[in-house]
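Encode chain A's predicted structure.
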Amino acid sequence: MLNIFNSVFILYRLYADAPNNDIWSFRFPLHDHNNLQKTFRIAELAPFLEIIHHFTGIYKLKAHIFVNMLIHAWIWFGVIEFNLQNEYVIYWVIVRSLSKVIRHFYNAYLAMDLKYEIYLIDYLRMSSYYIIYVIEYFLSLILVIQTLPVIKDGQMMTQRMPNFFNFDFDYQLVYFFYICASIPYFINTFVYLHRKRKQQLYQAKIRAKLH
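Encoded structure for chain A:
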């Protein structure tokens, strides 16, 4: 419920506060941690409760969901935090919020024991992956690439290591690691979602025929 409320509230506030109600033109104020930013931060951190449940054995998370949670939190706190005025930030926030609204409203649909009862809902949910996930990934990639010069010019999070290590820690390494590792991970996750969609819609069609 918290994720649904946060996501809907964020989309509403973006629409209400944006110039001429143009949601895509909204920009977060610099050095002004307003309620909207705080709300989105909470929305990104809330899934960590699921991670804690996963580690304590209460709830089992699939590997791709676990990794996605960590990546999304890092994109906000480790990328956007340094490049808040980038034009792609608001696009990423909107797509993330839409993704959460779709996901959690569908979870509510499942909680009412309506799975496969309405084929159109299952079809739209499973097909939304093709658009939402792809757009979200490429926006993340663009943000990371465009934040690299900001990190380099500002010498942010550069740590001198003892001489015997023969290198200094540079936070840009984390960005390059993301770029290199995320491409095969994106392909793997996309294939997984495609197979999942095919399986779910096949079962939905069988259920529809039985009715």
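The mean pLDDT is 81.
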